Amino acid sequence: MSRRPFAETILVVDDTEFMVKLLEDIFTNEGYRVATARDSDQAVVRYAELLPDLVTLDVVMPGADGIETLVRLRHLDPAVRAVMVSAVGLEARVLEAIRLGARNYLLKPFDRDKVLDTVRRCLDEY
Amino acid sequence: MAPSVTLSTEGDDVLLHLAPEAPQPLAEVVARLREELPGLAVDWVAVREAFRYGRGRPFPVASRRPQAALDEKVKIRFSPDELTAYLLFYPPKPGGQRLSEAQVLAVVTAYGVPPALLDRHALRLALQRRSCKEPEAVARGRPATDGASAWVQWARGWPSDPEGFVAALQVEAYPETVVAEVREGETVGRRHPPGAGTPGVSAHGRHLAPRPGADPVELGAGLTPSPDGRLVLAGAAGHLRLTGVGGRSARLMPLVRVRDGQELRALGPGIFPGSVIVEGDLEVGFPVRVLGDLEVRGSAVRTPLDVLGSLFVRDGLIGQGGGVVRVGGVASAGFYDRASVLAHTVHVRRYSMKSRLLAADRVLAPGEAALQGGQTASLGTVEAGALGSRNSLATEIIVGAPGLQGPFQEAYLAWAELARTPVAPDRDAAEPELLVAAGHWARCADTLVAPEPGSGAVRAGQVYGGVTVRIGTAVRELDAPLGATEFGYERIGPRGRVSLVRK
Question: CB-CB: which of A5, A48, A76 is closest to B79?
Answer without folding.
Answer: A5
